[in-house]
Design brief:
Layout: E1 2-6, E2 21-25, E3 37-38, E4 45-46, H1 54-83, H2 85-89, H3 101-129, H4 131-141, H5 143-152, H6 159-168, H7 171-186, H8 192-204, H9 206-220, H10 228-247, H11 260-265, H12 268-298, H13 306-313, H14 315-334, H15 336-360, H16 363-401, H17 406-445, H18 450-472
Antiparallel strand pairs: 1-2, 3-4
Helix pairs in contact: 1-7, 1-8, 1-9, 1-10, 3-4, 3-6, 3-7, 3-12, 3-17, 4-7, 4-10, 5-6, 5-10, 7-8, 7-17, 8-14, 8-16, 9-13, 12-13, 12-16, 12-17, 12-18, 14-15, 14-16, 15-16, 15-18, 16-17, 17-18
Length: about 475
């Protein structure tokens, strides 16, 4: 079925395309009163997008949003796999590579750090180049770290070379911010917790999947063939780029999008949300990168080979990724602040359990506590991301009540929410760097990670207190609806 959409604009009263028409696939554009696209080819820029209008949404907007979400998830998934590639590759670096445990934690910390830095420019690349266009470009960039890793990984390679190549894998971390900022614009407020949770959760699944790929290579080809792991992803990267090019769309960008980061950086709530995201996503990505090495160092007798460690490394990230959409859905129902508060309380208890298990040298309890931390961090990922657009929607309602034009207020809320998603995502990812640094210093000082576990417990206690004080405590005068 084809729908005729305009190539010269839309009628401001109806949103109906006017001017020269062109027959296009009905899956890429919808008719009168719904989103229209410019041009007759696939991947057109959408010129009229009103997801909060329920008639618009039901008449075809939902189908367009879900299609873009599906391809966004796939591309982000591959990005996460590339970003966490070195959490797997360090398991292959045996005695012939002459790298100690501290050096391996550095190899996993560097891509985390670069990914965190890149999240800010990646967020605004969506506004500058379009969500579909940037998804294609950012997917193709993933070919660089995978190809480099496939070339240099062999005994005798210098440690400096490995550090440089590992760092480049950070480009995969930037994909998350641009993907989330893009999807945030496609969905109405009532579905944002679910949509952002699915997008982020599907992306996060890239962490356990690449670890399963590593396990498969270890179990079949053996530890002498680490280059097979990155090379598996080369065709998948090409598929992700092609899918985005053929089936995604560009949303219209507001002319003042470039100033959104400046606006949110001056808002105290932005820094509170960034702290909460350090506690949730920083924990998830940091644990995901370090877990395999932690098992090999702290419980070496039970995990004396890379295969044994890899058999369990993927489990925590897998469950944490699957929990993320549920965190978003729970936040849609009960409020992001309440879900986030109880998540941090439970994470503090989980960190205490891990610390006790470390003292007792109990592997079953240790694994139970760590898996619980992964699951809870996934739930917290989803609930904190629900809080970000809810924060600005609360501001929008207040602005409209005071006389601001509703369309102006809605546009301002969307651009600021996208900017804060990038800012909080960047700062939160640095939490993953701190996790790896904490483990590195703990294992340099002794044979266990007890100081790191104690630090994690303290951070979760602080985050619980901040969430309660700012967003949950009765009579605090906080913004409602979070």
């Amino acid at each position: 079925m084809s729908t005729v959409v305009g190539t010269e604009g839309t009628d401001p009263g109806t949103g109906t395309a006017v001017g020269t028409g062109a027959a296009v696939d009905a899956g890429a554009a919808v008719g009168t009163g719904t989103g229209t696209t410019s041009g007759a080819g696939r991947g057109r820029g959408i010129t009229d997008w009103r997801p909060e209008d329920e008639a618009f949404w039901e008449a075809g907007g939902a189908a367009i949003a879900r299609r873009n979400l599906a391809f966004s998830v796939f591309s982000e998934h591959i990005g996460f796999s590339v970003w966490s590639l070195w959490s797997v590759l360090v398991l292959f670096l045996g005695p012939k590579y002459h790298i100690d445990a501290a050096g391996k934690f550095t190899l996993t910390a560097l891509p985390t750090a670069l990914g965190a830095v890149l999240r800010l420019p990646y967020t605004f690349a969506v506004a500058r180049f379009g969500g579909r266009n940037w998804t294609v470009a950012s997917a193709l960039l993933l070919l660089v770290p995978t190809a480099l890793a496939g070339i240099v990984l062999h005994p005798g390679v210098s440690y400096r070379t490995l550090l440089a190549v590992a760092c480049v894998a950070g480009v995969g971390g930037g994909n998350f911010a641009s993907s989330m900022a893009n999807i945030n614009g496609f969905f109405p407020q009532r579905f944002k917790g679910w949509a952002l949770g699915v997008n982020a959760g599907g992306g996060n699944l890239g962490v356990p999947v690449v670890q399963l790929v590593g396990l498969l290579v270890l179990a079949t080809a053996g530890a002498a063939h680490p280059r097979l792991v990155p090379l598996v992803y080369v065709p998948l990267i090409v598929v992700a780029a092609l899918g985005a090019a053929l089936r995604m769309d560009n949303l219209p960008a507001a002319p003042d999008d470039r100033w959104a980061l400046r606006d949110v950086a001056g808002d105290p709530h932005s820094w509170v949300m960034s702290l909460l995201y350090v506690g949730t996503f920083g924990s998830f990505i940091g644990f995901g990168f370090a877990f395999g090495e932690v098992l090999q160092v702290q419980f070496h007798a039970q995990f004396d080979t890379p295969v044994k460690a890899a058999c369990l490394t993927f489990l925590g990230p897998l469950l944490g990724s699957l929990a993320r959409p549920f965190g978003g859905r729970m936040a849609d129902r009960w409020g992001g602040a309440r879900v986030t508060l109880w998540t941090f309380v439970a994470m503090a208890a989980g960190a205490g359990l891990v610390l006790a298990a470390s003292h007792a040298h109990s592997l079953p309890v240790f694994l139970t506590g760590f898996v619980a931390l992964f699951v809870l961090s996934g739930l917290g990922n989803g609930s904190t991301y629900k809080m970000i657009p809810a924060l600005f929607q609360a501001r929008r309602r207040a602005a409209v009540a005071s006389g601001t034009n509703p369309d102006t207020a809605e546009g301002d809320a969307r651009r600021r929410a996208s900017a804060l998603i990038g800012m909080a995502g960047a700062i939160g990812a640095f939490g993953g760097v701190l996790v790896n640094v904490a483990f590195r210093q703990s294992f340099l000082a002794g044979d266990n990670g007890d100081p790191a576990y104690l630090a994690f417990l303290a951070v979760y206690a602080v985050c619980s207190t901040v969430t309660w004080t700012v967003y949950v405590r009765p009579g605090a005068g906080t913004l409602r609806g979070l």
